[in-house]
Amino acid sequence: VLLEGIDLSKGRRRKRCALPAALVAKEHELERVRHGLQQMSRHRHGQKRERVDENQLFLFAAEIAGRGQEPPPEPKPVASEPRPAPPGHGRQRLPQSLERRRVVYALAEGERCCPQCQAELRHIGEEISEQLEYAPASLLVVRQACQKYACPKGCTVITAAKPPAPVEKGLAGPGLLAHVAVSRLRTDEAADACSGYDQICQESARSITEVACIARARRKCFDAQSSDIMRSTVMLAYFHLLYDVEREAREKPLDAAGRLALRRERSQPMLDDIQAYLERERPKVVPRSPVGQAIGYTLSNWEALVRCAKDGDLEIDNNGAERSLRGVAVGRRNWTFFGSDNGGRTAAVPGSLIATSKRHHLDPFACLRDVFARISGHPQNRLEELLPDRWLASRSPATA
C-alpha cells in the first residue's frame, strides 16, 4: 500500500514481527514474578532446608559419577512473692523466697595476726552481702559471709576479703551474667558474594584471598527448580556428589593434606565437568531467569568457589560460620537498640566468645561463668588465657 510515496507495508511487517518478541519478554517477566512469589511463600511458610528428591538426584548423579550405585544418603523459673517497697532509698532486698547459699570467706591461718603488735586475732563476727546468682533453671542468692577478726589488745579489726565481683558493686553473679549472655547472644547475616568485598580482595597490599561458599551456589540452583527443573536437578546432583566427598573426608577422618589429596582425586574432575556444563548451558537460557541467574552467579564467582580444591584447610562452604551467627538473627528482638556503637562492640565480645566456645565443643555457659568469676582479678597482660581455646588449660584447680 502506497500513501504519498510512503510504503506502510514494511512498518506493518515490523510490527507483526515485534509482537512475538514482546510476548516472549512478557512471559519471561511473568516467570520471574511467579518464581519470586514461590520463593517468598517457601521462605515464609515452607521448610528452610534444601531437601531434594533422592530419586531425582539418583538419575543424574549415577550417570555423572559413572557408577551404577546410588550415592550415600545425607547423613520454669522460681516465682517470687510480691513485696512492698521498703521505706527510704537504696537497693531493694532480694526476695526471701529465693534459695540462699552461704559462702564463707575467712582469713588464712598466716593472716590471723595483728599487723601492729603481732598478737593473734580473735573472731568477732562477719559482714554479710548478697549476690544474685544463676544456676541452670533456677535463681539463688549467694550470702557472702566475710569473717571479721579483731586484735585482743584493740589495735585493729580485719575483715576477710571476698573475690572481686565481675561488675564492681553489681548485684549479678558470674553465673547470672553468663546466663544472660548465652541466652541473649546465642550465636544470618552472611554476605552473598557482596560486591563490597571485591575492592578489598583486589588490593594487593591487604594480601586477602577470596574464598566463596559452594552452598550459596547450590541454594540458587535449588531455588531455580520452579523455572527449570532439568538444569537445576543436574546441578544439584553435581553438588550432591561434591558433598559426598566432604562427608567421606570427615568420616575417615582426614587431615588437611589428606582432604586435599581426596579433593584433587574426586572433586576436581567434577568441578571441571560443572564448569563445562554451565558454560555450555548459559547461552541456552535467559540471563535474568532464575536458572540463568544461578548459572551466572556460579560462573562469575568460579575462581573463588573452587579455591577449596587447592587448600585442604579450607571448607567447601561457610555453613559453620553461618550456624555460629544464626543466634544473632534469631535474637534480634532481644536487643533492638544497643544504645550506641560502643554498645554494639561490647555485645560482640561475648557473642564471639560464645561462638568460639561452641566451635571448640565447650559449654558456653560453663566457660563464660568461669571467665566472669575470674576476670576481675586476672592480670590484664594474660587475658588471652581466658579465650575459649585456652580456657580448659588455664582453669584453676578450684574451678576445674
- Rg, Cα atoms, Å: 33 Å
Question: How many distinct helices?
Answer: 13
- Count of β-strands: 6
N-to-C terminal Cα separation, in Å?
A: 99 Å
Summarize the amount of helix as a percent range: 40-55%
SSE order, one letter for each helix or strand: EEHHEEEEHHHHHHHHHHH
**Beta-strand fraction estimate:** 5-15%
Low-confidence regions: 1-8, 67-75, 396-400
Secondary-structure-based class equals: alpha+beta
In this structure, how is the largest beta sheet organized?
Answer: 4 strands, mixed
What spatial form do the alpha-carbon principal axes imply? elongated
Average residue-wise pLDDT = 79
> What kind of oligomer do you see?
single chain
Describe this structure in words.
The protein has 400 residues and is α+β, with helices and mostly antiparallel strands. It is 48% helix and 10% strand. Strands 3, 4, 5 and 6 form a four-stranded mixed sheet that branches. Helix 2 crosses helix 6, helix 3 crosses helix 12 (364-374) and helix 11 (341-359) packs across helix 12 (364-374). The longest helix has 37 residues, at 9-45. The model is unreliable at 1-8, 67-75 and 396-400 (pLDDT under 50).
